[in-house]
Write a structure and sequence with these properties.
With 901 residues, the protein is α+β, with helices and mostly antiparallel strands. It has three domains: 5-167, Immunoglobulin-like (Sandwich); 234-247 and 307-366 and 597-889, no CATH class; 379-587, Four Helix Bundle (Hemerythrin (Met), subunit A) (Up-down Bundle), CATH 1.20.120. The protein is 47% helix and 17% strand. It has a ten-stranded mixed sheet, with helices on both faces. Strands 1-4-3-6-7 form a five-stranded mixed sheet. α23 runs antiparallel to α24. It is elongated, with a radius of gyration of 33 Å. Mean pLDDT is 83; it is low at 1-24, 171-202, 469-498 and 532-550.
Length: 901
């Protein structure tokens, strides 16, 4: 039968087993797999005694792998190994992976063709020999290994030997680790049952993985180490969260701004001056809502894609979507050590590419905006920036605490109806705590002063002032309320003698009295229920409670709970109006520049949040069995360490300014783990801009194993950290002729933040709870080295990035790597990090470090990332650019040469 050859990219009709049977062909035998999430087949190659076409010349060999369909015998080119220079016995580090979805069966034949590359720069090659084998023969072989003869095209002359070894990442089909004694195997099985490895915790649970990641690409390698082999699987996957989180966040923005419009309308009557400002603010909020609704509608139309390519950076409809967001994972197996998994989230720098960087990024724009507000042009603001931020916090607290108090009050009544003493005690405790938190949050001088300012802005108050005779002793700010002067100090806020401040104090007193009555009655009911002696406080309770009947608890508590809710509603109504009035001044007087800045900040925050949620979820999923990590998570929080590779030149300065603000804003984000009530495991966002909570869903079986604090809904904090070091030729220009003070200040500020986190960790937890590494350098020493490198102000000091990444891993943190598009410089960084980990933690042979690095960059997942983004399997560098790169950030020859996108 004639065999035709096709490239994989050309596709070609494929037949599944059932289809084959319907055509009268025998049913094909699928490959048996223990783990449904792992690739179907992985193997590595090595050649021996290769003969070269030129006498006395050692070949530069590589192997081309093709698959021959068992149905119609067509050949599909699948992949290549790397090129091994100048040897007759080449050992190929890059293995071959057939993913789960690839139509390969035991009857499938694999064709291996060996070539000799004569001129690497021109990619000229000559045929040496080829062979084929059936997949089933490899699977059924005793040692999972085949030794085959390479022959010329006519099948006559033997030109060498090729060895095919199946890679199972530590497990055979019987679940037993290779090259380990039976006793060790039994011990390992026990250990694995008690404490699954990080990799198995995720890979053996496809619903968790598939809820977040799609379209994984896998590459495998075999690297020599000290007296053993390292088997490495490199994976790269898109994330469904690239679009899901921005859409959730935009919906949250729409809800918040719609609520703000309603709050402004409910302020009541205002004097003409303030009413004009209100209408202006409402108009701006309405425009934002309409714009965000249009963006959301456009995003909802997009289907079938889970990442935004670098060429779409500047598209308006995608401005909330992170650029090129992927999970980069390395799974390391060594026969003598426990498996290890290392994850990095790669994503383009969060930045407003569509709006551009002509005037800089958020860090500069916000600073300039605040300076202008303080100096000139914003004459209607009574309150400083600190006051407006406080007002936002108060409104956020209102929206969080009022529903909680209402919920706990209802639970109290439910417990009373059931006459359950334990439940009543717990409900009373929670109601008291949340009410006290409510009082602490809102009984603030800012609320009191804002109520006075709102009173003086009423038409009735303004009319009285204009009708009153001029008084030289009257305060000037009262005389000019309709066109007020700039005032930033709290003690300069207008005062009017007719304003009754006692009403606000009385409202708070009513809340306290109502809660006190509930506590006393509940205590009395609990005492009587326990047949204890009469409480000495019954006399004081009698003033409030007319009925001494111990019968229906619900009936006695109900009127007191209703009163408490009414008192809280009165406080909330006043506080909301006063804080809304504060924000009205900021919104109206900051038009239109403030609105544009807020929108830019929303976009950058959206991109940063999508990456953060992706990183948090993958870290949680891989650590569900790690009790020490879970303790750290709910006690201290988690570090999210961002590595930036942006230069201090041209547009990338603005990108870094955007990125710095976007990452800093992640401090407003908290996480809560909830039990999944369905198969939908997508995270849900709640809250407002100033306080956003991400609810992460896990299946019931896993949820039940979590610590009580996490199951109880405790919020978990994030500590975002950013270190940036430019590495390209533009950074060279900035260091010689420009200014890199922005990078220096960012690195110094974030070093202090990282040190604060570590201090908090050591105060609350033991350092023994941190993961142990082979290179167990003392964390204090690492911090000192990082401080010295930052202070040294050395050019392109990438050691800052290396140290920060190592500290992050030792602190159980989440790692992120970013450049403009997460395509080229990011690829150099993550491959370097992977090989450094293999060398330092897994004893990769020092002579193979550069070979492993080049192999990952030439044949690994990151060259596939370049293909996905730019439709070209080359990194976007040229020779002139690479001369300015640090040594270990330069790709191998033949893998670069296309302009950036």
């Amino acid at each position: 039968m004639e065999i035709t050859e096709k490239k994989e990219s050309e596709g070609g009709q494929q037949f599944l087993p059932a289809e084959a049977e319907s055509l009268g062909e025998p049913r094909l035998t699928s490959i048996k797999k223990k783990n449904p999430n792992e690739p179907q087949l992985e193997f590595c190659l090595a050649c021996k005694e290769l003969m070269s076409a030129v006498r006395d010349r050692k070949p530069n060999a590589f192997v081309q792998i093709s698959a021959i369909s068992p149905m119609h015998q067509s050949v599909t080119r699948y992949s290549n190994t790397e090129i091994v220079l100048g040897t007759r016995d080449p050992l190929f580090l890059a293995g071959v992976t057939f993913p789960q979805e690839y139509p390969i069966y035991e009857e499938t034949r694999i064709k291996l063709t060996v070539y000799d590359v004569k001129d690497k720069s021109q990619e000229t090659r000559s045929f040496l020999g080829c062979t084929t084998f059936k997949v089933g023969d490899l699977l059924k072989s005793e040692e999972q290994k085949l030794t085959l003869s390479l022959r010329t095209l006519d099948g006559g002359k033997e030109v060498g030997i090729i060895e095919v070894s199946r890679m199972t990442m530590g497990e055979t089909e019987d679940g037993v680790t290779d090259n380990v004694t039976k006793e060790t195997q039994e011990q390992k099985c026990v250990l694995d049952c008690e404490c699954p490895s990080p990799g198995n915790a995720l890979e053996n649970n496809s619903p968790l993985f598939n809820a977040v990641f799609k379209n994984p690409i896998s590459k495998v390698y075999r690297f020599p180490a000290a007296d053993k082999w390292l088997y490495v699987r490199e994976q790269m996957a898109e994330s469904i969260l690239s679009f899901h989180i921005p859409k959730e966040l935009i919906s949250l923005f729409i809800k918040e701004d719609t609520s703000r419009i309603q709050e402004l309308k409910e302020l009541g009557e205002l004097s003409p001056h303030w009413d004009h400002l209100r209408q202006s603010a409402i108009s701006q909020y309405e425009q934002i809502v309409i714009a965000y609704q249009e963006t959301l509608a456009e995003l909802n139309k997009l289907t079938g894609s889970y990442f935004k390519p670098s060429c779409s950076r500047g598209e308006k409809t995608l401005e909330f979507i992170p650029v090129n967001l992927h999970l980069q994972r390395m799974h390391v197996h060594s026969p003598k050590h426990k498996d290890a998994v290392y994850d990095v989230i790669t994503v383009g720098a969060p930045a407003a590419h569509f709006q551009g960087f002509k005037s800089g990024g958020l860090r500069r724009l916000l600073s300039r905006y605040e300076a202008e507000k303080r100096n000139t042009g914003y004459q209607c603001i009574y309150y400083s920036t600190e006051h407006t931020e406080k007002a936002k916090e108060v409104l956020s607290s209102i929206n969080q605490l009022q529903p909680l108090i209402s919920s706990h009050a209802d639970l109290l009544l439910h417990s009373a109806q059931q006459q359950s003493s334990d439940s009543l005690k717990e409900s009373l405790k929670m109601l008291s705590e949340k009410t006290e938190e409510f009082v602490h949050a809102f009984k603030d001088q800012l609320v009191r002063s804002a109520l006075l300012a709102l009173y003086t802005a009423r038409p009735s108050c303004a009319n009285r002032r204009t009708s009153e005779p001029s008084n030289s002793e009257e305060k000037p700010e009262v005389q000019q309320m309709n066109c007020p002067p700039p005032v930033t100090r709290q003690d300069s806020i207008p005062h009017h003698s007719e304003y009754n401040e006692e009403e606000w104090d009385r409202a708070w007193a009513n809340v306290a009295m109502s809660l006190n009555c509930i506590i006393q009655l509940s205590d009395r009911l609990l005492e009587q229920d326990g047949h204890s002696k009469q409480s000495e406080t019954e006399g004081s309770v009698a003033d409030v409670i007319t009925s001494h009947n111990t019968g229906d608890w619900h009936e006695q508590l109900y009127p007191l709970v209703v009163t408490l809710k009414e008192c809280i509603e009165e406080v909330v109504e006043r506080a909301k109006k006063s804080m809304t009035f504060v924000l009205l001044q900021e919104a109206a007087c900051g038009l239109p520049q403030g609105v544009v800045l807020n929108q830019r900040r929303d976009m950058v925050f959206s991109q940063a949040l999508a990456g953060l949620v992706c990183g948090f979820i993958i870290k949680l999923y891989t650590s569900l069995q790690d009790q020490l990590f879970l303790l750290q998570l709910h006690t201290v929080g988690i570090v999210a360490q961002y590595e930036g590779l942006l230069s201090m030149y041209s547009d990338e300065i603005g990108m870094l300014e955007d990125m710095a603000v976007g990452i800093s804003d992640l401090k407003k984000v908290t996480f809560r783990v909830v039990e999944a009530t369905s198969d939908d495991l997508h995270p849900v966002l709640t809250g407002r801009r100033e306080c956003c909570t991400v609810e992460v869903k896990v299946p019931t079986q896993m949820f039940e194993q979590l610590p009580e604090e996490i199951k109880g809904g405790k919020l978990m904090k994030v500590y975002p950290i950013l270190f940036n070091v430019g590495i390209n030729e533009q950074q060279t220009l900035a260091e010689r002729f420009g200014n890199i003070s922005l990078q220096e200040s960012i690195n110094l500020e974030n070093l202090e933040l990282l040190q604060q986190y570590y201090k908090s960790f050591t105060e609350k937890l033991s350092p023994d709870s941190l993961p142990q590494f082979q290179t167990a350098t003392d964390l204090k020493e690492m911090f000192e080295n990082l401080q010295q490198n930052i202070d040294a102000k050395k050019k392109k000091n990438v050691e800052i990035l290396w140290l920060a990444a190592a500290i992050c891993r030792q602190l159980n943190g989440i790692r992120f790597t970013c450049c403009k598009s997460a395509k080229d410089r990011t690829s150099m960084s993550v491959t370097l990090e992977q090989c450094t980990i293999l060398r330092d933690e897994h004893e990769l042979h020092k002579d193979f470090f550069i070979r492993a690095l080049d192999c990952m960059r030439r044949e690994g997942c990151r060259i596939e990332n370049a293909q996905k983004n730019a439709k070209c399997r080359k990194y976007a560098f040229n020779m002139i650019q690479l001369m300015a790169f640090p040594k270990y950030y330069r790709p191998p020859e033949g893998t670069y040469g296309k302009s950036d996108t």
